[in-house]
Fold each of these.
Amino acid sequence: MTKRGSSDGIQVNRNKKSLALSFQDPAGVEILHKLAAKCDILVENYIPGALKKYGMDYETIHKINPSLIYASITGYGQTGPYSQRSGYDVMVEAEFGLMHITGSRDGPPVKVGVAVTDLTTGLYTSNAIMAALLGRAKTGRGQHIDAALSDCQTATLANIASSCLISGEKDTGRWGTAHPSIVPYKSFETKDGDILFGGGNDRLFGILCDGLGRPEWKEDPKFVVNAQRVAHRDELEREIEKVTVTKTTQEWLDVFEGKGMPYAAVNDVLTSLTQAHTKARNMVVEVDHDECGPIKMVNSPVKYSETKPRVRRPPPMLGQHTDEVLREHLGLDDGEIQALRGKGVVR
């Protein structure tokens, strides 16, 4: 029952079947009720109360199948003053702190490059569903999961939220790729791109100094300990970048390889997807799609010692499996299915 755009669908709908029907028609609602009676989990992302008029709300479905896990994903939750607002990732990033702490130090607030709040909410919801299934194994009963983008965004403020709550003070704002209390810990321009260095303590800073060919910085009173480096942040970062722009990113990667200091190239997305480590971790797979031909997809990120997750079927076209689902799960014959299609109940 979730609504997705075409670009999202390629990623999130692998291993799924697509049944297309209208629940504005009572016959469509009847089909959904019959399916719900046989299901373990139902996920929906409509504004609270919107499904009640169709008989697809939690209370109705719970009576049909008391063991079903019913997960509602919304922008602002089932309760609260914002509950009737439509949920958009970028709005929630703005309203619940993330945008304020994202961006360059002196620049405007910016959103994260992907819909990160949508993604984290999906992950929180999947964890909640797994926990609810474990609970059902003990009690035999399902339950309603209320997952909101706003709540999940609040939770993922993590240590910054804790600092504000404990101190009672506002956060320190945007830091770009830098760290508010560790220097140097940010990206620096190179001859052909950017590289990120993590001089997280005095020993690591020493490795950085040696690699950059500036061992004298290790003894400089302005830089010798992290507190002094933070105090002289702007000066030190300027001096580092004067050096990093003299070599390419790859040349700096070669310099620090095996030295034990955190470092990383700042890669574009295509480079990230085609680099050696991504390939070694089998994070890109190719599958054959009936309509699109061979397509490449990002693989499941979690590896199991026993179970081997794989792409069993490519993302479906809308309504591709309508007939199959109705036959297999509800026992409808071809005539009944065609009659429903003729009335516009299914597609």
Amino acid sequence: MIWLANNWRSLVAVLLSICLCLFALLADSYRDKYKAAKSLAETQQETINDMQRRQQSVAALDAKYTKELADAQATIDQLHDDVASGKRRLQLNATCTKQSTSGTASMDDAASPGLTDSAERDYFTLRSRIELAGKQIAGLQQYIREQCLN
């Protein structure tokens, strides 16, 4: 009976040692999984932070060029209004040839060169589109320098 009692205690000690080793292996496995998950979470957070910084930078860039474009359009609109009201005039490099020198002078000979109404509208449309294209190109170039090349 003594042998069985000592053997039983040894068996329990061996079983407890095995259970303790299994628990240690299980804990180590969970620790490794925790470290991997933590590393992944940190990487994801860094990515999110970088994306947020880039979004803020792009939003600021967009706001800057949108304001510049609005200011340019306001200047063009003011110029258009000034020309329409007669406050300003468009200056042209043009020469007018007389119809004929043998006829009598008429009011047409005294007219100064000027744009037709459609040519004037086309001038302001063209000027507006040039400003728009310039601002878009400048904005895209800055976007490429700040976002794509970094």
Amino acid sequence: MNVLADRAGRAAISGADTSGVAEAIGRLDRLALLGIATELHRRTRLRNGGTHAPDQLALDLGAAERHRWIVAHWLDALHEEGLAGRAADGRFHDLYGPRRAELTAARTGMESARIALGYPPDLATMLLRSLGMLPELLRDEIGVQALLYPDGEPGAAEAVYRDNLVSRYLNAAAAEVLRDLAEQAGRPLRILELGAGIGATTADLLPVLAGRPVEFYLFTDLSPFFLDTARRRFGTGFLRYALLDISTDLPRQPGELDLVVAATMAHNAPHVGRLLEQAAALLAPGGRVLLIETVREHPQSLTTMPFALSPRKGTRPPERHDGRAGTRTYLRREEWLGWLERAGLRVEVDLPRDADPLAAMSQRLFVAIRR
């Protein structure tokens, strides 16, 4: 299955030159880090020397309580890239102060980078807007949803989750997995999609099911907004819609499902292992879990995604119980593979291949079958 899924993914990006992906990712990551460093240098006591705790710097920035953890998250990223020092007690010092010419050059190089990654202009616009609105985002004067869904439209979100090289590859590979499952099924399919959001992956899966026997495809999300959007976009038929919070128990349908889909959302679970165990328990023999997941947080997402993860109240980062220490958002590839195995699932697809330039984008398709 790994070979067939990879072949389908490659066909979806046929003709694209992927040789410059790693360099382009590096340029966009650098732009985001320089923008964050500029904001911290301009508006916090770090510019005056000394060592300072992240909470002090968050107060300097006027960060809302629920967003204060993000400042520590940013500083950790800056430290990892050599742009800030960190003392043994967790305080920070020697923040790099970007030069104006350096920032200008980074912005100038953004266009060639986004083209190399297959990003549409909407995504580059969103990155620049988010960098320019960091003070308002931190103070909670504007929500990240306004950047992802301007005027209530999913254009920027489509750019993040669908309209780029790696998303086209992964969604096409996922569709091939479903095609194989549908051809082998001995009865109408039963499918559950968790946290389906704007339906970026759903849109590639549904055409595979056209004309095939499907008992139901249950499209779920935490937000009524996404369910209403999906109803307008996809209609009904075998599609059903339901509100679902993955931090609580999943639907109680043990041993009934053929496929559980979770595209770029399973990392939101407080404990990924528990979520996968619950998903595995829902599967009929031979059923599959299909995940699309990020395995490394790239700095270019630091100006948007952390704001979407902030808890509604309090000053602590999102609650994690599966080894993601501190402010770490994503599991590493080997951690995903380990949790799938421990949930009683045998991994049969793990893409892109190690030698594929797309691997530098740190998003992967995992498909695992119930043992």
Amino acid sequence: MSEFKSSLLRLLDERGYIHQATDSAGLDALASREVVTGYIGFDATAPSLHVGSLVQIMMLRRMQQAGHKPIVLMGGGTTKIGDPSGKDESRKLLSHEDIQANIASIRKVFEHFLTFGDGPTDAIMVDNDDWLGKLAYIDLLRTVGPHFTVNRMLTFDSVKLRLDREQPLTFLEFNYMILQAYDFRELALRHACRLQLGGSDQWGNIVNGVDLARRMDGTELFGVTTPLITTADGAKMGKTASGAVWLNADQLSAYDYWQFWRDTADGDVGKFLKLFTDLPLDQIAELDKRQGQELNEVKEILATEATALLHGRKAAEAAAKSAQEVFSEGGISASLPTYTVDGGSIGLVDALASLELCVSKGEARRLIRQGGARVNGEKILDEKYVIILTEPVRVSAGRKSHGVLLPRQ
């Protein structure tokens, strides 16, 4: 049992979200007596976040579940600079228009996890370009600059690791931590925000914001970071051989998202049920006891519950049914990606590429040579194999990626 008194920190603690806190006792006392407003920042470097950001999104969801107010801070301003944390090279600079388009696209994901509105615990989304874009450089240097020493800035992991690897760190990126600290202070002034949440790699940036508000305004702010979420084999959460696991439905289907969770390693199932589903903890404890074949059933529960949060219950159950049809019954599901073929035939290489089961025809040829391509469940080793279509045909890349070829009627 958690030793915290507030429902907020108890919930975060019992589900495994807390790694570090600037003043856990002070935050616990604050959350016990009033609604706490807290935020997490997300840079808009792509039209979608990926599953590596999901633990942060779930933290905001937990805040709201515990009766507190989450702020989604979109980095319309900081995306113009780029966060050096965990990066070996500078990010490509995006235009203002591209960044705003990305923010509009990303918002769709948050609407699945949070309730937005004007109520005391309703979530709001704000853009730090609203204030960072209006800063006068000299004024910023005079107002904020004296509170930062280069000596201390060089000790932060986001800077130190890049320099240790002898990778260049631009002066533009070096300013990122100052602007993130300024964000925290600005949100405290504008929205009475007292808490910043983030991943463990953001600890230095969060502490900077706590210190800056204390020095400039005498305001007491708090920070909490999550542990680095890794899989049982030590890999970073969300990194797969096939690329990023995107959260936007137009970049990754509900079926493929479900399959990502179904492929969870045995040792991660209990942890992921706590972090990424709303199932009660006592039910998770019971599920976590299952072994052998029963554990596969628990993975399907994890996949369905996690997918339901993002894509809705109906889509999640359809994905589960599709998987059962594909793997258990060898059938063809309407939820799988399809490609309609003109002329009654198509080469297997073209089929794999057209169904986007392979990113290129070269990759498709390699897959066939390595024995990873199947047509209606039959392994095909001939790169020149031609599929004749008189009815729908299932094409597979490996054991988990499938699509359906349809003859033109």
